[in-house]
From TrEMBL:
One Pfam family linked to the record: CC2D1A-B_DM14
Compositionally biased tracts (Pro residues): 79-94
Domain DM14: 11-70
Leader sequence residues: none
UniProt region (Disordered), positions on chain: 55-94
Organism: Oenanthe oenanthe (Northern wheatear)
PANTHER family in alphabetical order: COILED-COIL AND C2 DOMAIN-CONTAINING PROTEIN 1-LIKE (PTHR13076), COILED-COIL AND C2 DOMAIN-CONTAINING PROTEIN 1A (PTHR13076:SF8)
Top-rank taxon: Eukaryota
Matching InterPro entries: CC2D1A/B, CC2D1A/B_DM14
Protein name (Swiss-Prot/TrEMBL): C2D1A protein
SMART domains (alphabetical): DM14
Gene Ontology MF term list: DNA-binding transcription repressor activity, RNA polymerase II-specific
Amino acid sequence: PQQPAGGAALLAELAERAELYRAALGNAAREGGNGARLRRLQRGLKTLEQMLESVRSGKPIDEAEIPPPVALGKGGGAPGPPPPANPEPPEQPP
């Protein structure tokens, strides 16, 4: 089956997004939190997997139906570097 010109890029985008959904699903399950969020992630992942199969078999998909990117929701992760305590050099007395 021949893919359209953007088929490879679309396939890569779908695969990357599916990986993000899997990671977010794993994080959400470990946190044992929001059941609605878990279901939403599962639905999104299922949709992405179906779209991946369609693209691989050469069938067109509606790109507007691709689930949106998802935040991984890593709770308790290491925060970024702290801001500098004193960004200006100390003044020397005259």
